[in-house]
Amino acid sequence: MIGQWFRHDIEDLLARGRRAVVCDAHGSGAFLLKVLPSTISLMTAHNELEELEVRYRAEKDFPNKDVVFYTSMPKNEIKYLLEYAETGGMIDLTDIEGYIKTRLFAAVGVNASIDGDSLVMAARLSLDKDLNWWKGVAAGIIKPFDLQSYIVQFVCAPQQTLKDMDETVCEVFTNEVYHLMGKQRTHQTAEMMAREIMHAIFNGLVQNKITADLLQLYYTLIDKVSAHAALKTYMEGYELPSDCNPTKAHPDHPFVQLDRKLTEMLSQALLNGADTFACLHAINERVNSKYATSFKADWLKQLVVLMSDHVNELYKINSLEALAKYYQTHFCCLDRAMRLLYVAFLNNPGTLRPLQYHYEQQVKVLHDKWFSLCDQYQSTQQGLVVNALLQAGKVAVIVGDGLRLEIADAVANEISGKVNRDFAFSSLPSVTECGMSALYGCDKVETSAQVRFTHLKKQVPSLEVMILDNLNESVTAEKLLLTFGDIDQVGEKKQLAGLKDISGYHVLLAEKIRQLLAMGYNMVYLTTDHGFVITGLLDEADKIPVPSATEIKVDERFILSNDQLSDTTFIEKSGRNMRYAYLYFAPTDKPFVSRGTYGYAHGGLTPQECIIPHYCFYKDQTEVSGCKITITNKEELKAVTGNYFTVKLKAEGDASDLFTSSRKIKVQLYNTQGNLLSSSVETLKAGTSLSKELEMIGTACKFVIVDFQTTEQLDSCPIEISHARDIDDLF
């Protein structure tokens, strides 16, 4: 504001006679000259000779233009410019503090609570500030020189920030920066000074000895996404001390290297049976901290889950159904945590093995309880997909291959809305042909996917089947089955390495479910044929020896035999599904000795393989977002003649109702492969109609109306070429 006040004063003086003099004997008001517009000619004079020269130039070159004379001569020494000072006027900035106070009082009606150098500094900093800022300064609420705001800009762009500063402000800023670091001022480039600031912050965080001002600066930097690129650059140039202890570092530090070192310390403590309290305390503090969230290792949360007790209530359970519920609500999060820890440390087996062993100790307790109750095991998978699709309304079912319960649970956690988290027991053995046959209601195990789909379509004639990746707004089926086989394909092909791909699938599935709900499906089911186990890092001694028998087929997770095995440690079930007399499982998640790689497996009888999700996501019941839009000439569109056709739309609703008086829609034309041919946006008001002329491309296509805001499908119809001969030209 001081710039505006000064400019107004100058303009008032120039209005008298196009000449004004600014006297600034101490030179402290020179910064105000920056606000003068380019239409005003500025001339400077600092002695008697220069006075004479600028007067001559003004009369010769600018006789009828505005001129401001700036002089550092005391007022009583001015001679040749005195005439202009008396006729045009003069502003005396020799007492700049008094000038500022006078203008400030005139603007806000109060005397400033600061004076001296602080007031002048406020004036230098106020050129781009408004009146409210000055009111805060005058009341003492706002500190004129806010080091934090300047230093954030400086850290992100050191050289440019200093370049843009007033010389006096730059001097004060530099002194404040060195004071902030607790160091003596030295001559350094802007980049070096910025690097020193950040290194002081990093040292303080690593040692957990950081001043409140430096910590606040750090918080300001990490809160600004725009500063993250610069922050990461400084981090790359900072070398962590070799003796740094992650258990003693500040919990808000930004170094993933320290998180990794902390994990390695925990792993080593588990290996040696040492006290883990310090490691767990540091991990919990870091996880619970609300700062530097984007700089923390994702696996820290998984370590907290891993080190929690998940089996303390198992002794109370005496039924397989109750145990499955307990697994869903208390234990499957541990499976997810360990899966993600495999992803993070697969290339570091030294760290991973003790973590895996700790996980296995809890899994063993679960499995011991599970296998003690497995005589109660009965598959409930038969017809799950059929029953879901036969429900009223628009229903979609996503069938995964190898979708473990904990992944489905992660999907549900991603979606805000109504969800029924039901589960079922898979058919045995828990392999694809058994599980898919049961889901689709087949009477026996069908090895052909096409046969299974054909059987399903006989029960649900209106069903449309497609791969999940192909879902788009052209899909209008009342009953929809979407297949998602990525998990099993990746797991069987890549084994443990495939876990990295699998870790992102819950986000993809959640996105597709939200899309289906938005398209108007009332219920979206998520289920699967089977789950899987992660056999992890294995030694040969961990694998299960294969018993001897005459007619035997050995899989990684089960054995089929026509001979009854004498080994009573195996769990025996009927093998008729697989055309064998007996089906055997080892009461463990370890594999039988067999050909192929190990890491990802299914077919066994563990909870991870056999408790499958049968989750249902419901469409939120929201208010009507507009009038009802329908296609009124569907019958005509079933037999189109010629290259062009017209779609007629009608809007129904209450024209006086704000919510149903109109609707913005997208009208889209797709070919039979689901590719978008054309799209336009229309707005219809209640009680009106719209005719849309379109070109026929091919022999058939589909017309779809979609709500512009919600993407809900409002109506659709197929467009088909008439097979009758077009005889219009004969008449």
Given helix and strand content, the structural type is: alpha/beta
Write the CATH fold name of the largest domain: Alkaline Phosphatase, subunit A
Strand order of the largest sheet: 6-16-9-5-8-7
Globally, the shape reads: flat
Helical coverage, percent range: 40-55%
Q: What proportion of the residues form beta strands (DSSP E)?
A: 15-25%
CATH architecture of the largest domain: 3-Layer(aba) Sandwich
Cα Rg: 39 Å
Brief overview:
With 731 residues, the chain is of the alpha/beta class.
Key phrases:
single chain, 4 domains, flat, Alkaline Phosphatase, subunit A, six-stranded mixed sheet, disordered C terminus, 26 helices, 731 residues, alpha/beta
Walk me through what this model shows.
It is a single chain. This protein is of the alpha/beta class and 731 residues long. The chain folds into four domains: 93 residues, no CATH class; 138 residues, no CATH class; 239 residues, 3-Layer(aba) Sandwich (Alkaline Phosphatase, subunit A); 103 residues, C2 domain (Immunoglobulin-like, Sandwich), CATH 2.60.40. 40% of the residues lie in helices and 18% in strands. The strands form six sheets. The chain has a six-stranded mixed beta sheet, sandwiched between helices. Helix 16 packs antiparallel against helix 17 and helix 16 crosses helix 19. The longest helix has 26 residues. The chain is flat and about 125 Å long. The relative contact order is 0.06.
